[in-house]
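Table S2 (text version). Query chain:
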Amino acid sequence: MTNQAFTRAMPSSPSIQGESPFSSLLALQQASQPLAQEIPIIDGQSPPQPAHGRARSVSIPGSANAPRVLQPFNTENIRILLLENVSQGAVKMLREQGFEVDFFTGAWSEEELVSKIGDYHAIGIRSKTRMTKRVFDAAHQLLVVGCFCIGTNQVDLEAASKRGIAVFNSPFANSRSVAELVIGELVCLARQLADRSMEMRHGTWNKVSKGCYELRGKLLGIVGYGHIGSQLSVLAEAMGMQVIYHDVLPLMPLGSARQADSLEELLSVADFVSLHVPELPETRGMIGAKELAQMKPGSYLINNARGSVVDIPALIEALKSKHLAGCAIDVYPREPAKNGEGAFSNELNEWASELQKQSNVIMTPHIGGSTEEAQRLIGIEVGNALCRYINFGGSIGAVNFPEVNIRPITEQETRSIRICYVHHNQPGALLAVNEIIGRHNVDKQSTDSLKEIAYLLADISDVSESDIQDIYMRLSKTPANILTRLLS
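Corresponding structure-token output:
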């Protein structure tokens, strides 16, 4: 059974009283059960955990080669806060691991987070909860952040890195859902379905064909040919469309698509332009008045990327002048924190009512990845990432953190420990570590760095309980230390 010690920067001296945690935890090993299917979850806390800590959950119950996983050691049980109604499958998965999970359907404000984040070792969020530097400064126990979505722009990644906190996301799980939404928007825009539907709701019969088109033979321009853009390319060609795409990298086209030499070329020839770029300094405002003017007269713009990518007031002017025949917008510069009537108004974005007045405009509330299939896959991907990092220290897939992984310590390796050492990337850091662990048998070791942060994983065998305490204390006091964890 693995247990954990961790400290960030200047630790207090741990003490062991009574029965040895190392020995007693070994005696508490239990066989695991497979992860259950999703069940309804309500806001609140996990059921009470067993008095002797959480049961392990491994893929091969009873096997000597099964990996040993984390049990709190010198800390309370691992507590996880899940916000914004993340996948119930993820909630179930984490609870079955024995973590104490508090689940809430809404986002939390910065004030709520600052007042409560100190109680948690991990947090799971979607796009509305803002993890600011102030929140991280209050998160003295936090080890990891799981973003149950594609983007991480709601997280201050620099502040997380400086505190040795890994951030994981799910960059690919909702790709199909977004691509399918765009296909639906293409049809709706080409046939003016949103306007016809609204007219019928008001009792108006308006059967027209002028300005309505088939998609077959039309040219779709895709800006950003990543996982979503490339899937959209395949789906669009299946409907008889031609595809041109623009990306900052030269990428192999799928099907009969071709890469444009420039964004300007794509904008000037495409009948439909669909945006699929991340929020970066170079993509903020990338579609403004100049770019809209370069678009083909009578064309359509679709934005399911990030709200900062398009200059909305300039888009409104292009719609008013009929230079554009319509648009579909799923993301906005500022979005409501909660669902509710009147939540999207001029108080949030001063141009909201003006955009709502325009004809052939589809406005959706950031639902690109909001399908049950996508959320289930995101829950599995991010939930597994949290488990791997907490239980084994593996950081593969982290967006702000060196990616390091080594094979797990197995059940038969009963006197082995894993060192998870986050430190400043500075000269002499590894020398100080090796001076501490060099007198022991180092079974395996791996390290990597990302900018100013470095991360070391090392497994040491044949260590006594006094060795564990000594290693922990000495590593915690090294000058380069940011966060030290021991898994045993």
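Notes on Table S2: The longest strand covers residues 441-450. Residues 4-172+373-487 form a domain with the Rossmann fold fold (CATH 3.40.50.720).
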